[in-house]
Amino acid sequence: MPASRPQTLGALERSPFAKAARASRTVKDELRANLITRLGTGDPVFEGVLGYEDTVMPQLINAILSRHNFILLGLRGQAKSRILRALVTLLDDAIPVIAGSEINDHPFRPISKFGRMAIEAGGEDTPIAWLERDQRYVEKLATPDVTIADLIGDVDPIKAARGGHILADELTIHYGMLPRANRGIFALNELPDLAGKVQVGLFNVMQEGDVQIKGYPVRLPLDVLLCFTANPEDYTARGKIITPLKDRIGSEILTHYPETVDLGMEITGQEAWTGRDDLSVKIPDIIAEVAERVAFEARTDRRIDKRSGVSQRLPISLLENVVSNAERRAVMSGDESATARISDVYAALPAITGKLELEYEGELVGGHVIARELIRRAAEATFKARVGDAAVDEIVMWFDGGGALQVTDDAPDAALAAAFSSVPALGDLARSPLLAGDDPDDGTVVAVSELVLEALVARKRVSRSDAGRYGRAVPEKRRRPNEDIFGGGLSA
Q1: Tens digit of pLDDT for each residue in 111-135?
Q2: What mean pLDDT do residues 288-306 have?
């Protein structure tokens, strides 16, 4: 703690901090003032929150400027928690509190009996502590078993017995999370999961500043910013949110997933752990794009639950798993570097299936089958976005004539590049600057070649088995009952 910060009430009254401390500025006023300063300098309001500059951020800024309690409504993986945690950057560096106070009593305006008694007993010698901005943020996940005691507080018989107090004495209260967030920010995630009677206690504190604990009325004029998150499907009037609480939330802000693939790739690139210490793993742009498009394709698939959403964590986890598979290949072969390829995306299926909530129709098909289809559709969309309707007839004719390729994720880059180059027109297409960039190496050529073949599989012009064998497309009438629509065997 800096030596310049006063440690007693008297020292605080005589210090340069006294003027700011005596000002009757609430937490919401503090956030508002610091936000105005940040807006005036042109700095980003929150670092690391991408894609909301023209949608969510203006609404959030207006809510803070209006001194509103607010709620962020959005599906999972839309940076709601990150936004709430970033609010602490708008708080002052530190504030003075009465030392030992459970609810961060203001030295000049204590609201608890403990704080008032401390001032009366200590006078100018009352110890002062300093609360750093990170300590002024309290977050709670709402679950059906959360009680009034958890959020607001409860009578503590042990405190009463040790202090010789009657149970109605305020000194016997064990304060919950909300009072302990006094003079700070209290964030409640998944608000609709909170039981109705707890919601009643919550809005009572928000509006009237009082609550009943075990039948005893207690005044709690808390100074706190309340912010919530919820899924839009749950935040309705069908019994999950009580109307008086909804009415007391000043601003309702809708979040969303990235609106473009490029933006999604930027977010994934920021969040994914792709830089490994032991060796270098190159991620071609097309592989990063395929990983991102898997999420975009999943969000439009009717077999995947729209109410649950497809989290942005899917492409993040997927890309990390892709890099890990390429890293594994390099370690096993003794190479010092590796290049990610489409077969690595297939090896990363566990990063996809665990993040898909399937509808009934999807459950019948199976998560692994859907995940493979998403990869093929993502590859086809990437191919089409980059080269449009490129000529691929020679490639298809080669496979129709009996040609076949076996591709495994542990095969060396040079061997695969040579095998792909034996397919007419595939080698030239794999070195196209639109797909491979300038002066591509063998690893990039392999990644692009696999992308081209996956695009043809998605168009049903080439088949691919689950073992990675590319061959002639299987006609519809000759397809076995257990084959998927792309000509490969149905995975177990």
Answers
A1: 888 889 899 999 999 999 999 999 9
A2: 95
| pLDDT-based confidence at residue 1 (cuts at 50, 70, 90) | very low
d(CA 71, CA 318): 30
Q: Which class for 38: exposed (0-12), middle (13-18), buried (19 or more C-beta within 10 A)? A: middle
**Tokens 């072969």 -> residue:** 333
Q: What is the pLDDT of residues 316-334, one digit of tens each?
A: 999 999 999 999 999 998 8
CATH number listed for the domain at residues 9-254: 3.40.50.300
Q: Is the pLDDT of residue 483 over 60?
A: no
Say which residue the tokens 């071609």 belong to.
Answer: 284
- Pick the closest to residue 114 from 207, 180, 53, 61 (CA basis): 180
Query: Which residue from 104, 107, 54, 47 is spatially nearest to 79, judged by alpha carbons?
Result: 47
Dihedral class, residue 490 (left if φ above 0, else alpha if ψ from -120 to 50, else beta)? beta
| Domain boundary assignment for the chain | 9-254, 261-478
First to last CA, the chain: 60
pLDDT tens digits, 38-86: 999 988 889 889 999 999 999 999 999 999 999 999 998 999 999 999 9
Q: What is the pLDDT of residues 248-266, one digit of tens each?
A: 899 999 999 999 999 999 9
Give the distance, in angstroms, between the CA of residue 278 and the centroid of all CA atoms in the same chain: 28
The partner residues of 72 in beta bridges, in order of sequence, read: 229, 253
CA 14 to chain centre: 45
